[in-house]
Amino acid sequence: MLKKSxxxxxxxxxxxxxxxxxxxxxxxxVYKRTxxxxxxxxxxxxxxxxxxxxxxxxLARKPSGxxxxxxxxxxxxxxxxxxxxxxxxxxxxLGFHPDHIRKGLMAWKEAKVKMSxxxxxxxxxxxxxxxxxxxxxxxxxxx
Length: 143
Fold this sequence. Notes:
Strand content: under 5%
Number of domains: 1
Largest sheet: 2 strands, antiparallel
């Protein structure tokens, strides 16, 4: 059976393609699987990004870093699963246990805060103030 479709012109010569109705289920399944895999990759990227911001900006001094940390932490702690890209929904889709991830992140946060508070307060590594004098190097050609 031949059909012409505007959005499917790329599948055949001159805009026509051969389509067997018996293959409709197979084609639909492959298409849905491809979309599903793409959605899962995107969800995993969202989760990875949130973990990165949570860890990277925990001890941030700049307001922008603090805000990124707070947003990531709030996202992890939110128990709402109605939004497609909520933490709960992403974990459910990817087969992760959200409470297990939360506990791990909070334990990591506590240890990191404890470690930073046990070091000297307001201590920052000091940069060397010595400047290197410019030396003149002369290259000569030797045969």
